[in-house]
Design brief:
alpha/beta, globular, Aminopeptidase, six-stranded mixed β-sheet, two-stranded antiparallel sheet, 10 strands
Length: 236
Amino acid sequence: MSQPPTEFGPLTYKPRGYGYSEKGSALEIFEPISETAKFLIMGSIHGDESLSTVLLSECLRSIQPDELQSAVILAANPDGVLAGTRCNSRGVDLNRNYPTENWSPDPVYYRNRPGNPQNIALSPGDAGGSEAETKALIELIQYLKPRLVVSIHGYLGCIDDPDASPIAQDIAFRSSMEIVPDVGYATPGSFGSWCKEQDTPIITYELPSMGVTELKQVHIPILKDLITGHYHKLLI
Ligand SMILES: [Zn+2]
């Protein structure tokens, strides 16, 4: 195992812009220097799940630039991260804004703590694909054509992969989490549904609710393996 580079503190990688959010924030992706990325690993499509951003950032900062083999988006919803909200700056749940067959104009409801009622309403947008963040990510994925997308969320503590792929099984084993075929409630217009309709395999990686130190201990090694190509050998 190589030592963290001296740049462990600041993020020295140069991202590429792939668009702008509704509020004008840069949407950024980190890509391998020489390889074409097989995986796209992304955090914070929900801005209030920004530990995904913190963990991915630490992974990026703890490897040498030439070890990066996957495309990485630290925050697919940067304005949500800055505001601490699940939604983007227009009040839209970006993970219900994809132009899927099941997209619905009805408000979507979420709970902010386990055990609380699922009664906080957000908009799914004016139409599937209405938001700038959604349009940009769709274009990006159609360009990158990743063999696997891993979208990191929190804090249900499970690995959502209806195919129970070998990679999902390994992540579940290493993290002592269960593989589930869905998150247990309808998610019309979700990014995952859209990926499936595009025949792009997707794993929804729901971080568990636990202390940050333990979360880093368990999940940073797995996420590092996802961004450095360790898992390429388990691609079907
Ligand atoms: Zn989420």
